[in-house]
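Quick start: read one record
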Amino acid sequence: MSSAAPRPSGIGLVGSGSLTFVGVAGAAATVYALQVAMGRMLPVADYSLYAALAGIFNMVAVPLSAVLLVVTRAVALEAGRKDAGGATAVRHQAVRELTIGGTAVVLVGIATSGFLATSLGSPSPWPVAAMWVAVGVNVSLALGLALLQGAHRFAHLTAANLASAGARLIACIALVALGLGVVGAMAGIALACAIGAVAVWWALGPASASERPLRPTHGLLLSRGALVLAVSNLAFIAMSQFDYVLVRVFLDPEQASQYAAGAVLAKSVLWLPVGIVIALFPMVASEAAASRPIRHLLRQGLLMAAVTSGALAAVLALGAGFWIRLLYGPRFDAAAPYLAWLSLAYLPMAIVLVVDNHQLALHRARFILAYAGVALAEVLALALPGATLDRLVAVIVAGSLLCLAWALWIVAGQLRAGTDEEAGSRLSRS
């Protein structure tokens, strides 16, 4: 095994980030087209049920996404060390653990579908059961994407994201058009995940024949790294998805659907940094493991997120009424004020997302713990009795600004201290 790994192939964060941005932006635009289609095809009251189930789909994936980030980081570290046997071991262990864990979660979810359906005001448990099936199928797709990301195969990752999103759009529209309603939409997501999983694993190909036992620090489901990543992902999901569930539970369906229409479009400001951090996370891990400088990657990521997300937030906020009328039609005119405010409210989270992934790649937990504390406080404030949409928006704005202030303080301190060498030596020993 070589002691000095070569630099990852490609043209750095700008090039790789641009490539993954194309994939994420294209996939997100396709998924948003699906949201618009569902808003037009489903009754107004049913649209908020669809949005709530989609939000739950994302929230229950938090433990999965935490494990997958551990997988991505572990594969990236082995790539930095040029250790094919280690990468193969990570792959095999991830398949074993996620097959068992994913199956257990899905079975419990299906068994409790009736309770969740009642809580969400759904007349039938079938939409909830279909959502849990989609969760199970998504495990295979998400694991394949994590392996591609860790191996820096960003072209394949981009193609897979676009293909999966396109399949979701087609399948959901087709099944809803057949009169299956929200059940059809959730079944369409499950079918698209299955199609995407087949494509991703075909692109991955067979694992390397060489394999060695994993180091103790590379445990997946129960590792310290997985727990920290789970906390981070839970904080982000809570601050970006929990509102859909709360408005569905506490407000009338019509008002909840108006809010959902504005919120879904407003959160598109987070599409752009997602494309950046998909490249940033494994690149920081690989460069630090090889004891090379990494501060320039953070600077590039912050600049790209600020410029792209800031421009999109301005376009959405200034033309909120136009975009809502164009995409959803006059039935959702009341959603325009929520789009304007939430576009600006989620803009700070674009910066937070970049800092969060940079810290995660370096095994640093201090930022994540404070971030999780703000997220918990926001969720508790949102869930207080007497919920109104105005209070909900105000709480989201306050939470985003608090997270941004903490992120900038952490970044300023680390850039002044110059911690590249410390991070590299720590990761190279892990």
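The chain is about 80% helix and 0% strand.
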